[in-house]
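For consistency, the fold was encoded as tokens, which produced the following:
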Amino acid sequence: MHFEKGHMYHIYNHGNNRQKIFFKKENYHFFLGKLKTYILPYTDILAWCLMSNHFHVMVYINNVELVVDENGFTHQVTDSHLMGKTRTLNQSIAILLRSYTRAINKQNDWSGSLFRAKTKASCLDCSIITSPPYYIENGSTLIHIPHVKTEYPQICFDYIHANPTKAGLVNHDEKWEFSSAKDFAGKRNGTLINKTKALKLIQRG
């Protein structure tokens, strides 16, 4: 994955062979804690949704690399009083998935990979978008976006929150507990997302 500071990205992955990655409520909460620990120091999280066999996170990149102190905490690379190794956002994502996998394998008495080998990250507002500006669902749904740089973030934002509704799990996006749709609907005041920044960056209308 290639990340650039000052841009928005959609990060997502599925369970291996589309197997479940969340088995009970505690698993969802545990994963959200991992996002706060490993992703939030580098980003502002704009939207997220956890489904039983996959996850979506929409972020704005503030840092692609941070200093890691002797206690494992991350700091700005520009903190001149800190010496030590650095950790990239890519590495932090890998640590998140490995540590979550270890916990689920222990819970279920499993071994091996839980997630697909490659986590995907699509830039939503880059000058040249390498990922196609549409989503294909079940091989049939095509969304064409004429003004990619301004409209793609909004399409992605809505797509992430609509996952549970499209799957028939709820009849309104904000009713799904494990999604930031509830926060944007004013029904929860979660601390994971930067709601102010999301509303500023994402075209509404």
